[in-house]
Amino acid sequence: MALRSRLVAFICTLMVAVQGAAPAGATVRIKDIAGLQGVRDNQLVGYGLVIGLQGTGDSVRNSPFTGQALQSMLDRLGVNVRNSTLRTRNVAAVIVTADLPPFAGRGSRIDVSVASMGDATSLLGGTLVVTSLLAADGQTYALAQGRLNVSGFSVQGEAERVTQGVATAARIPGGALVERQVADQLASLHVLSLELRNPDFVTAERVAGAINAFSRERYKSTVAFALDHRTISLTRPVNLSTTRFIAEIERLTLEPDSPARVVVDERTGTVVIGRDVKISTVAVTHGNLTVRVTETPTVSQPEPFSNGETVVVPRTTVTATQGGTGRLAIINGANLHTLMRGLNQIGLKPAGIIAILQAIKTAGALQADLVVQ
């Protein structure tokens, strides 16, 4: 009896563990699905010169802007080359881009990307000369300079050329120094706004509810209000810094909602089905029709001592085969797992699944948005 009791207890424990392992909605932090309005990167761009190339730079004849920039740079350094003809191939004109992160102070370093804009064949071994990076307001916010990190190469011989990656684009990790700080008024704001990265009315209401449940216990008041499907307004409590307030809010977790959507990519055969996608009861069968056309032309020779001509006689053979199992399966997608079992029951390849999903959507049984890329 004791052994039987222990066996029954073990089975009950195993059943509870299996039920606990059932898939459930994943909870995420608010900081992973929303961001503070106004806290964003700023794009910077500049025009500069890369020097030190081994004859793979711009040709001044085909890229006159490179020669003009080189002359201007030498003039600033006290070298007069206005009446000289520049024929160097060790210089390349480039566009330098960077993203200025929020709250970046003076003296901090940011990564920059460099891309050739002339007829240079490679930037390997080059060094970027100090370049001003401008924002949309025309002001200089950073200065970039340093040795280029090129991941690609291009080698060419008399009859063959080997290319890997892109040799005319490069990066400089930490290659720019921030010289101007973007004005920040976040600390003085009393009313803040959270913006969802994937706008949704249900998710916005859940975020506001989670924040208010926390604030009623912590601050004895409600501080969040969902304005629309993207924005949640936050009222910062008095005598609490903005940094502390946002840090406490971002740690809260919830289960976001998403629309029922099916995304298919016919080029790669990729099918992504959302969790809430459902299909009304339908019967589906699928078969592949293969048509093969074979051309076997023959040569017709005239009879001996006749005045005929040798001609080519076409001969075409057409065969059609119907592939697939041809089984009729009933699909009733009450949930994602049932839907996948129904599709796998037919035994289809990705191209067949895409065709069936499009047909089910046309029949009005797919209760989701079908996005074809």
UniProtKB/TrEMBL annotation:
Signal peptide location: 1-20
InterPro entries registered for this protein in UniProt: Flag_FlgI
GO molecular function: structural molecule activity
Subcellular localization(s) per the UniProt record: Bacterial flagellum basal body
Keywords annotated in UniProt: Bacterial flagellum, Cell projection, Cilium, Flagellum, Periplasm, Signal
One CC-aspect GO term: outer membrane-bounded periplasmic space
One biological process term in Gene Ontology: bacterial-type flagellum-dependent cell motility
Keyword Signal recorded: yes
Pfam families per record: FlgI
Domain of life, per lineage: Bacteria
Entry annotated with the keyword Transport: no
Subunit structure: The basal body constitutes a major portion of the flagellar organelle and consists of four rings (L,P,S, and M) mounted on a central rod.
Family from the record: Belongs to the FlgI family.
Function: Assembles around the rod to form the L-ring and probably protects the motor/basal body from shearing forces during rotation.
Protein name: Flagellar P-ring protein
UniProt organism field: Bosea vaviloviae
